Amino acid sequence: MSVEDRIRAEIEGHPIVLFMKGTPQFPMCGFSSRSVQALKAAGAQLHTVNVLEEPEIRANLPRFSDWPTFPQLFINGELIGGCDITVELSESGELARIVADAHKA
Question: Which domain of life is it from (predicted)?
Answer without folding.
Answer: Bacteria
